[in-house]
User: What shape does this take?
Amino acid sequence: MERELALVPGYGKTLVPARIAAQFSKQYRIVTDEGEKTAAVTGKYEYSAMSRSDFPAVGDWVLVEPLPGEARAVIHALLPRTSAMTRKEAGSVPDEQVIAANMDTVFIINALNQDFNIRKIERYLIAVWESGARPVVVLTKADLCDDPEDFISLVRSSAPGVPVHAVSSMLSQGKEEIAPYLVPGESVAITGSSGAGKSTLLNWLSGEDVQRVQGIREEDARGRHTTTHRELFLLPGGAIMVDTPGMRELQLWDSEEGWGEAFADIKDLAGKCRFHDCRHESEPGCAVRLALKEGTLDAGRYANYKKTEKELAFQKRKENAAVKRHAVGSRGRSAKSMKDRKSGGYSFSREGYDAD
Ligand SMILES: Nc1nc2c(ncn2[C@@H]2O[C@H](COP(=O)(O)OP(=O)(O)O)[C@@H](O)[C@H]2O)c(=O)[nH]1
Ligand SMILES: [Mg+2]
Ligand SMILES: [Zn+2]
Assistant: This one.
């Protein structure tokens, strides 16, 4: 990173590092050594950005020029991301939106009530594996459940090797289980459906109400908002936590890598089929069908595997078509910049500032 930083004119002189704490379309809330400021990208930055993911997102490190005597700053450059949790954007040209950048760990939040949904956990797992961060499943609202252990084992069988914990933010139970992930200086994002209890968990771990909880008014007697919207918070122990907005539907984005990891057990089984191109339908010597029959592979899990495999193929076709349509235009680089990110490279293009 030093090599790249050295290429940025003004680094160490007028430009200082900052981290994105919230985004409101083109305005950002950033954290700097001198405290919080509002910021926007330069015109040049905006002009050279090729896709939505080239713009800063919550958790991103950027280089900014603070405006003297003002609580504002100008964002000049985006620093390379170590991980990026993304959501596919609907539209004729698929684009991706970064939900949280530079996360070390992502908590996949699911509630232990009627909203519990193992298929949803599997889908979030795909996205987290793909992001480059470490997934941890946190089952909330344990106070509403008589047998959290049953749910924990269910998740364990669907997410081999992924840590699973049950907590109650309401009763302050299970903090010791998630404390090991809250390492000072490390970043943890909380993701999961709306209403799963993400903001409540954040408030509990913060020891104060830093984030708005559903159904609870955050206005004071005069009707003014008492909190400034923010998504990135410093926890008392020194870890950073990012509260992501609830995603109604988590769309897959060409996440073959994450998908393969989320269903590694099925991939292993498929490797044991007699035919290497086995479709696990009526072929002889099919290890997948045998596992389904013997019950060592759960039918629901296999169905989700097939469903997400289809979506992935559809997504790929859509992406290829979009790349073809836009290959002639100068703004047709979104697919390329995403590949850059996947290779661990640096996707934001500025003259003389492309890492690979
Ligand atoms: N019983 C119980 N309710 C909870 C718990 N955590 C959150 N809730 C409730 O679940 C609802 C949604 O919580 P919220 O944190 O806003 O969810 P978010 O949308 O994921 O941020 C609120 O009514 C919370 O009070 C918990 O541990 N136990
Ligand atoms: Mg919330
Ligand atoms: Zn097979």
